[in-house]
Amino acid sequence: MFELFKIGFLSVTLLDVIDIALVSLIIYKLYVAIHGTIAAQIFLGLIIVLVLSFIAQAIDLKTLGWLLALVRDAWVFAFIILFQPEIRRLLQSLGKSPFFRPLLKIEDKTVADIITESVFELAQKQHGALIVIVKSSGLAGIAATGDIINAKVTKNLLTTIFFPRSSLHDGAVIIKGDIVEAAGCQLPMTNNPVYAGETLGMRHRAGLGVSEEADVISIIVSEETGGISVAEGGHLKRGLSKEALRNILTSAMNVSKEKGIKSIFEAFGKHK
After folding, report:
1. Which residues of the chain have pLDDT under 50?
2. How many angstroms separate the Cα of 238 from the Cα of each of 125, 182, 225, 228?
3. Residues 108 and 114 sit within 8 Å (Cβ to Cβ)
4. Residue 263: per-residue pLDDT
5. Whether the Cβ atoms of residue 210 and residue 131 lie closer than 8 Å to each other
6. What is the pLDDT of residue 264?
7. What is the pLDDT of residue 91?
8. C-alpha span between 54 and 48 (Å, rounded)
9. What's the CATH code, domain 111-270?
10. What distances in angstroms separate CA 235 from CA 5, 47, 97, 220, one per listed residue?
11. pLDDT tens by residue, 228-257
């Protein structure tokens, strides 16, 4: 291998540099995973033993190297046994890394998937729900009528908000992108309490009403029947299946992304 330089009696090659860089990356990732825990102190102790062992081998201190090797081997096994959770978190973070994602073919759930699964679970339990997804323009005025959340969309968050004993379950949730902006929000009601010959309940009137005034898509779960409805552009679709809801949300959110990208280019063009 091509020699890059020498440090005293040590000859450093390109392969040595790559080797050191990989080991440093692994050590750094492991330290980040256990930072702030008692494992961090033991980890630093292990690093010191490893460095001393390397130095002892480099200068040919056989007895000291043998002793440190014994301590090092025992310490490594103890570290693995005692700190399995931290090591597991490290491996999980590596698995989620963009570098390894194409190799592992990991598919993250989209926001449409998360909302669909949340709504379907709420429907099965007949927990009433009203979720408003912003497609283009924001709903700052409506969000201000509830409690600001500003948290990433998760199934646990949505099902908790609409749990019947939750103080926020009667209001609407506002979602923009992958963020739950607010919960417990009050929506404008449609002026027509009857749609397609059927009398609408309060949730359906609110979901339909906000879709008449803003570029949004509303998802309504009936507390009485567990039925799933979607309101968009002043039109209401009722009795949706899980797959039908997923397809509607996926399509709506893809259009929303395209509009967002288009608006960025338009704004850039105006400032040229």
Report:
1. 103-107, 260-272
2. 18, 25, 12, 6
3. no
4. 45
5. no
6. 35
7. 65
8. 10
9. 3.40.1700.10
10. 73, 64, 42, 13
11. 999 999 999 999 999 999 999 998 877 555
Q: Tell the residue number behind the tokens 């201190």, with chain if given.
A: 61
Taking the CB of residue 130, how many other CB atoms lie within 10 A of it?
23
Amino acid, res. 185: C
The three-state (H, E, C) secondary structure of the chain, written as one string:
CCEEEEECCEEEEHHHHHHHHHHHHHHHHHHHHHCCCHHHHHHHHHHHHHHHHHHHHHCCCHHHHHHHHHHHHHHHHHHHHHCHHHHHHHHHHHHCCCCCHHHHCCCCCCHHHHHHHHHHHHHHCCCCEEEEEECCCCCHHHHCCCEEEEEECCHHHHHHHCCCCCCCCCCEEEEECCEEEEEEECCCCCCCCEECCEECCHHHHHHHHHHHHCCEEEEEECCCCCCEEEEECCEEECCCCHHHHHHHHHHHHHHHHHHHHHHHHHHHHHCC
Among residues 195, 154, 205, 196, the alpha carbon closest in space to that of 175 is found at 154
Determine the Cα–Cα distance for residues 12 and 107; give it in Å rounded to an integer.
41
Entry pTM: 0.60
Q: Locate the domains of the chain by residue range.
A: 3-104, 111-270
